[in-house]
Amino acid sequence: MAADPRFFPQAGPQRLETILATLGEPCDVTVAALDLVLTGVAPLAEAERGQLSYCDGARNLAALRRTAAGAVLVQEAQRGAVPEGCLALVVRHPALAFSRAAALFHPPPRPPAGIHPTAVIGAGAEIGAGTHVGPYAVIGEGARIGPACVIGPHAVVGEGVVLGEGCRLHAHSSISHAICGRGVVLHPGARVGQEGFGFVPTPEGRFVTMPQLGLVRLEDGVEIGANACVDRGSHADTVLGAGTRLDNLVQVGHNVRMGPGCVLVSQSGVSGSTTLGRYVTLAGQAGLTGHLTIGDGARIGAQAGVMRDVPAGADMLGSPAMPAKEAMRAMTMMRRLAAQNRAAAKDGEKE
Amino acid sequence: MAADPRFFPQAGPQRLETILATLGEPCDVTVAALDLVLTGVAPLAEAERGQLSYCDGARNLAALRRTAAGAVLVQEAQRGAVPEGCLALVVRHPALAFSRAAALFHPPPRPPAGIHPTAVIGAGAEIGAGTHVGPYAVIGEGARIGPACVIGPHAVVGEGVVLGEGCRLHAHSSISHAICGRGVVLHPGARVGQEGFGFVPTPEGRFVTMPQLGLVRLEDGVEIGANACVDRGSHADTVLGAGTRLDNLVQVGHNVRMGPGCVLVSQSGVSGSTTLGRYVTLAGQAGLTGHLTIGDGARIGAQAGVMRDVPAGADMLGSPAMPAKEAMRAMTMMRRLAAQNRAAAKDGEKE
Amino acid sequence: MAADPRFFPQAGPQRLETILATLGEPCDVTVAALDLVLTGVAPLAEAERGQLSYCDGARNLAALRRTAAGAVLVQEAQRGAVPEGCLALVVRHPALAFSRAAALFHPPPRPPAGIHPTAVIGAGAEIGAGTHVGPYAVIGEGARIGPACVIGPHAVVGEGVVLGEGCRLHAHSSISHAICGRGVVLHPGARVGQEGFGFVPTPEGRFVTMPQLGLVRLEDGVEIGANACVDRGSHADTVLGAGTRLDNLVQVGHNVRMGPGCVLVSQSGVSGSTTLGRYVTLAGQAGLTGHLTIGDGARIGAQAGVMRDVPAGADMLGSPAMPAKEAMRAMTMMRRLAAQNRAAAKDGEKE
């Protein structure tokens, strides 16, 4: 199966020599092979003759043996499973190399530089060279948009916001009170910089908003998923480290700080003033309460609910979250007890 | 109580004969009753003289006995509970019949055909007969919008997107990289077709996006709730079967496939490459991890976290999810132990 | 640290006498002190000479002792910890007083009255005096917007919607089928009034939408977080009591009613037809199933899943939710059993 040309621009076929130059690591082939021409990319099971595929470690060995691909990126250990008639391209990082080759065949679309006549640009706003501003985008006063950015249709950039080079704001995203590095991406409907959830009750039970006077800082390469939300700080700033990626519908509260390379899977949430180290991962629907410290490289499991600090490198599961081994033991015990006590349990169900 | 005429167009009063013709099943009344005139619809407890109501099975029998409605849709078994002065309309599916009668009195508003002067229509886009395109809608190049569609204010349709007859895109919804059947509905802020959450780490710890080269296919009658998200496939397509309905804030990851008639309640989520059969239901805040297979008719309970394949027809509860009976037994045991061991537990709380 | 003047308008320096007049309660200082001039506000740890800070009860006593602030709002009991050179401003509610003083230094920006030339105003819509309507806002026919409102860029107000005085609709928010009091705030991307999740299956397995004929009523001061959703009623109305605040990505289903002062933290959800009393709080990712009654002042813990009615004042934890004490006991027992049975558990992990 090839990518649908109605939706994905095709840059191909490509000579193998050109492809090898994009992989980011050396790959040794015969001189004759350099002239091989490949027509596109596809997964092992769907690749057709003339297409490039990949096998990521020992997973998918069965699919590798059966693939019809013309060439396949594999690690040395899987070279023997490459079927006859398919060229083995041995690399250390097949998935990474494949992602780069795929981008060669299907470069991300780049709308033309220029400002759509319907865009509203506030006084004093600066738009960098080569930047595209789409229909109905609204750029606030004094905002500074870097070069080579893409501001999608209906995106709203607040007053004074700074975007570095090569940022992309997809349709309907909004950003205010924020300073962004290079290559930051907001997917459709992402919300960045709005007021955090801070207020104080009066003696009569009314809530008075605590002015939220901090910013959001998104370092280079941060990506915010569709309809995800990152609130600005209440006094200090909310900071997402370089390369951190948030999936769709993720929530990040005010004053949260996270190191580089964090990964927050869909519908996970981080409450206010919690700090994450480097390369912390939250699986889907996980939640962290406020004012915690999560150590470097910690992994928080799906639907886990973290109420206490987590040391570096820890694996946490459950709600409330426990170290993964402990959580699995508790779960096993619970199942065992349930099985041993069906009669007793049946009484209980009647209540 | 009648529906507020400021918000809901009224088409009535209606003769009973006209109403009966909309119910979708036969309903036997006397000839004299055919001339009965009803003024609107309302629930049993709120219906006034002259209004139509319904009783869904044995639920609400008390309300049925007290209703002031002029006529009520009931099953044969409940006919005896219809109070004097209220006409019993005996049908097999009272709720279904009522939903159709309600649509007769309050037909969904249909904005006039035509393209608002502020809409931006890309080169080569086709707009079907009778379709309404609202203010500030943006239609990408080469998109094909079927007849009798309603494209709401600020909706954004990406390049090449195909919408069948009678689709409705509500305010601020966006769709790209997608092929839709007839009668598809995107509620406000729904996001369809954006890039999935796929990337590969470099040895240095940077993340490189894996090009997401698949589409979204929404079959006939699919509805996507407000601010819900459906990512496009990474290579194959993300597919939602006919009639499937997603509630607000639901997440569907790349390459997910689900059969017809699935129901995903608010804030539930399905991770990438998981497959759902026909008529699978996810209750609120339930989550499925990736690469699973969920059988036809499976029911996943509220907040359940499914980590393994689920057979057809299974009821699952808990996080991690277990068959419902097992989960309830485990819960009962846990409560019992807690009650028997208060003293011991108190020690534990001190730690 | 002072608030960044690129993003937050500064109204200062201010004389202490002016500041004291905003606090909402008396604060006794010497006549000489009234002429003290303060330059801004900051948290204890970050405040610089000349800035105002606060200490909320006994928390942060260490920071209070070290603060460099020029003046600090404290309760009587903490007066002794105020360092030399820092003026103690003794009040009963330091956080509340501080929030008011902060708003004096940083008044919320007020865009100029008037209608942006790109806004689309439907026939018969009324716009109150002093109201700002931003670029690309769309106001439906017959809508009534009160005075002193701010309708942000791209906000969409449906036909007939009523907004009281001083409401704020932030960028990309949408509202339909709704009646709002004074001072209602929709944060970016909030969705109010869309169709609820109600439908009936046909015998053939198709779903037919039950017409959703109720409204949303937001009483004075209600705030709806970014990308949060409040569906309109199916017959009666969905009602949020005065001052209730919803955080980002919260879901409220059709026919839900909640009293004044409820607080729903991020990613929590309330299913259809559930009723909340006054001052109910839902912590992050908590969920309530439908048709429940939650008593006044109940507190539902993070990720709790409530399946039954909850009495007034109760603290609930766990999924399914139990009274907090019971849930903590059960958790303690589970951990203890797991620890006592490592050997047994190891067998279990092998399955």
UniProtKB/TrEMBL annotation, chains A, B, C:
One cellular component (GO) term of this entry: membrane
Residues of the active site: H254 (proton acceptor)
Pathway(s) this gene product operates in, as recorded in its UniProt entry: Bacterial outer membrane biogenesis; LPS lipid A biosynthesis
GO biological process: lipid A biosynthetic process
Top-rank taxon: Bacteria
Keywords (A to Z) from UniProt: Acyltransferase, Lipid A biosynthesis, Lipid biosynthesis, Lipid metabolism, Repeat, Transferase
CDD domains given in the database record: LbH_LpxD (cd03352)
Enzyme category, top tier: transferase
GO molecular function, one term: UDP-3-O-[(3R)-3-hydroxyacyl]-glucosamine N-acyltransferase activity
Reaction equations catalysed: a UDP-3-O-[(3R)-3-hydroxyacyl]-alpha-D-glucosamine + a (3R)-hydroxyacyl-[ACP] = a UDP-2-N,3-O-bis[(3R)-3-hydroxyacyl]-alpha-D-glucosamine + holo-[ACP] + H(+)
Domain UDP-3-O-[3-hydroxymyristoyl] glucosamine N-acyltransferase non-repeat region: 35-104
Membrane spanning residue stretches: none
Family statement drawn from the similarity comment of this UniProt entry: Belongs to the transferase hexapeptide repeat family. LpxD subfamily.
Subunit structure: Homotrimer.
HAMAP family: LpxD
Job description of the protein: Catalyzes the N-acylation of UDP-3-O-acylglucosamine using 3-hydroxyacyl-ACP as the acyl donor. Is involved in the biosynthesis of lipid A, a phosphorylated glycolipid that anchors the lipopolysaccharide to the outer membrane of the cell.
Protein name according to UniProt: UDP-3-O-acylglucosamine N-acyltransferase
Organism: Roseococcus suduntuyensis
Lineage of the organism: Bacteria, Pseudomonadati, Pseudomonadota, Alphaproteobacteria, Acetobacterales
Designated gene of the protein: lpxD
